[in-house]
């Protein structure tokens, strides 16, 4: 089985298979790598499936901008995203005390996670006005973080989805 960092020189895209569902797939030329879906239309918990594991992405509170990621079957979060107040972006906090800066430029449609040395770890770029195309670019170097946390692109997708939902409601957290 390929590791996530092995896909760094390939064209990766985030695709929404159906406009009626909030599902998302990370696709490479080889096929589907990761899949994220909402098990119920009422819940905001997303399940990410791929690379031999399942993770749950959820907002623990509607009053905070935090987003937690936990392994399926466990309640303790293995990572969390916290948005900056009144600014775009935030921080992804991983296990072992790793803090990865997250920047978002909503107007350009670019969402980026950096390493602790300010190198691009993962970047998602939306292009197109009517038919949106979402490209995923991995960093130039091979990072073990991507193999340890392969759900990172889906976390960005979840943040993008929340930003869209909150901008419709008139509230913006990240």
Q: What's the architecture in CATH terms?
A: Beta Barrel
The main sheet orders its strands as 1-2-3-4-5-6-7-8-9-10-11-12
Q: Which regions contain 5 or more consecutive residues with pLDDT less than 50?
A: none
Q: Can you tell me the CATH superfamily?
A: LURP1-related
* Rg from alpha-carbon coordinates: 15 Å
CATH class: Mainly Beta
Spatial separation of the terminal alpha carbons: 35 Å
Order of helices and strands: EEEEEEEEEEEEHH
Number of domains: 1
Q: How many individual β-strands?
A: 12
Shape: globular
Number of helices: 2
Overview of the molecule:
The chain is mainly beta. The chain has a single domain, classed as LURP1-related (Porin). The protein has helices at 144-148, 152-169; strands spanning 12-15, 24-28, 31-37, 46-50, 53-58, 67-71, 79-83, 90-94, 99-105, 110-114, 120-127, 133-138. A 12-stranded antiparallel barrel has the order 1-2-3-4-5-6-7-8-9-10-11-12. The radius of gyration is 15 Å and the shape is globular.
